[in-house]
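Record 1 of the preview.
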Amino acid sequence: MIDFDKAMKRLRAVNGYLGSAVLNYSGETLYVDNDNTGTDIPYSASIFNDAYRMVSESSLDVGFAEASSIEAKTLDGHVFLINSAGVLSSDNFSKINVFAIFRDDGNVALAKMIMDKAGKGMSEELGRL
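->
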């Protein structure tokens, strides 16, 4: 079984972090941390997951590869969803999507790197199960 708390520990320590979720390919929430938000992270994450899938479909339609992430930058924050396994396999069941929200003054570059690494690790672990 995946230890989501351990996998997401580094992300929670990044400056500006507000909350996160880990979703499977269909958008079901596998992990959620919304202690600092006062918002419904699972709901927001599933909406972002739908948007990600539409963007990926559009990307494939024009002859590009599946999207690896989507981001919404607002005046007061950032919302991301990073797909973990776009290049690992065609097995959608081992794909993990990592969703996170950050304040506008957060360390966004570091967050993206950590999200990508954590997502790939969780996806590989899920693929072995």
